[in-house]
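FORM 7B - TANDEM STRUCTURE REPORT

SECTION 1: FIRST PROTEIN
SEQUENCE AND TOKENS:
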Amino acid sequence: MSVIRPIWEAAKMRNHPAGFRLREVAMMSKAKLLGIALGAVMIFGGASAARASGWGGGCEERIEHERHELDRAIERHGYYSRQANHERRELDRLRDECRYRR
């Protein structure tokens, strides 16, 4: 058996000052890791929640814009025109998309 003990064995001894120092360093590193992990959860968790809540408000505005586009196409090209039919399909697609998101 060697006379020189490894540092971790010395740290296990209760009355050894290096043991208290190593425990202190270990607790500080654990606290830092916990702080970093909590910070990451707050940053990334909050970003997804903000994005998800923003989806509902945009749908009404986009549907209103598509209705306006349909009215404009009807005025310019007629009720049964190719352009009006295209705008109707776009409005239906957008309504389906917004229903799916809710």
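SECTION 2: SECOND PROTEIN
SEQUENCE AND TOKENS:
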Amino acid sequence: MRGFRVAPRLKKLSGHILQAAHRAAKAIVANFCQKSYVNRMSTMNISLPETLKSFVDQQVSGRGFGTSSEYVRELIRKDQDRQTLRRLLLDGAASAPTEAADDAYFDSLRDRVRSRPAS
């Protein structure tokens, strides 16, 4: 079976289209990277005793982190979540008592959700 021949002008045009698409894709990726949080990171150096450094290195390799920075960022995010939860719990404990959250309360919540129009 013979292959198709592509006219030289069409071949040149398709090459230009591919180049334009490639340039557009590169511009989109560059724009995303400029706006993403990665470019807004600051650098912080910390000193650790050898035992802690070894522990961090083990966590990085054993838990799938790419770098020790990723591991530390994850620890900080978890600490932020923990502090937020603690604040919410303390605010709830300091608030005035409300009605009991018994079976009737949850039944009324379910009824309210079921009666909402689908969006």
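SECTION 3: OBSERVATIONS ON SECOND PROTEIN
The first helix runs from residue 8 to 35.
The chain has a mean pLDDT of 83.

SECTION 4: SIGNATURE
Preparer initials: ____
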